[in-house]
Amino acid sequence: MEMKSGRSFVRKGGGGGGGGGGGGYLQAKGVRPGSHGVSLVSFGLDDVDQIIGGGIPVGSLVMIMEDNEAPHHMLLLRYFMAQGLVHSQPLFFASPLPSPQAFLGTLPAIASVRESKSRSMGPKDSSGEDELRIAWQYRRYLSEQKALEERRLRQQELTASSWAPSSSSFNHASTAGGSYEFCNDFDMRKPLERSLLIGAKCESFASGAHLGGLLDQCKDFVSKLARPPGETQTVGRLALQSLCAPQCMQTCTDWELLAFLQALKGIVRASNSVAVITFPASLLRPTMAIRWQHFADILLSVEAVLDEDKEMAGMLTDYQEIVGFLRVHKLASMNTQVPSVPDANVHTMKVVRRKKLTLERLQFAPVDATSGDSGSGSAASLLCGQPANAPSKYDF
């Protein structure tokens, strides 16, 4: 009797298969291998890449829930679009704006080499600053946190190398078009070069056109990404801003929007492309908003910071520098049955010197044991369990 292999999953052989179906790693510019046989592209912001597991899996759908109080989702969309144009990746941008081409003029430019070097040297020089800003009791927690992050990154690299093809073939394909960075540093104060905007295709649905026409344009854009097996592959990017905006809801029903999302996800999954969609969830019914979230492979949301929130200011450190929050609701789990769990669900958004968007873990200020109603009692009495206003020291 012949015994069958006990393995449940068998990885298919090489080749540049499309999407996240496990058909091998893509050998294209701006693509690197990830875990579980998935090819990754950069979001455009190194902090976001680290949060979502190294990058966006090819063939995945990223959805960002907007906040009505602040346009922070536009910052993330700019980085995503600029990174694709820098890597010479075809870009399709759809927006309710009357002229989407004008939005391309707001994309950030690549930072200078000097600024990139100073950024790379930043973590080494910031150790002394951390020692000055954080009490000595918390120094050991910093070292433990750094050790855990280094261990996690090392484990991801080992996992990727174990699944990746031979390094010589992948490096040859990556450097065939010249050396490049997987994630570039951008300067929001400078616009992107006009020569890089040639690979962008823009479309507006402000006139209330039906979603069927927009879906046909997405199909046409994705169909042009296919390459013969012998040629260099490319990855396309689709960016859709405020999909359920009032301009779109005038001629479309909720179920038509869901059908559009389902069709778009199938198109992206079967091709060498990634899609990022932003939508104002507050304009949808709660049940429909939940259905939208289920379609996403990666689900994020942005929130604004209130100007005069004294309670929040007392809880968080560097409250004056925070411009918003980024919440991680769902991460992609392709070619695996184990769900991906983020290290932290909430991150703060900060703009450094008006030129760089950074994301940091939410850090709470140390709790004052003498604050509140127990301000008259000592910290020792609180630890021992005696009420602060007890008439006797034996009264518990």
Automatic annotation (TrEMBL):
Biological processes annotated in GO: tRNA wobble uridine modification
Q: Which Gene3D superfamilies match?
A: P-loop containing nucleotide triphosphate hydrolases
Residue ranges under compositional bias (Gly residues)? 12-25
Q: Where in the cell is it found?
A: Cytoplasm; Nucleus
Q: Which keywords does this chain's UniProt record carry?
A: Cytoplasm, Nucleus, tRNA processing
Family classification: Belongs to the ELP4 family.
Q: What is this protein called?
A: Elongator complex protein 4
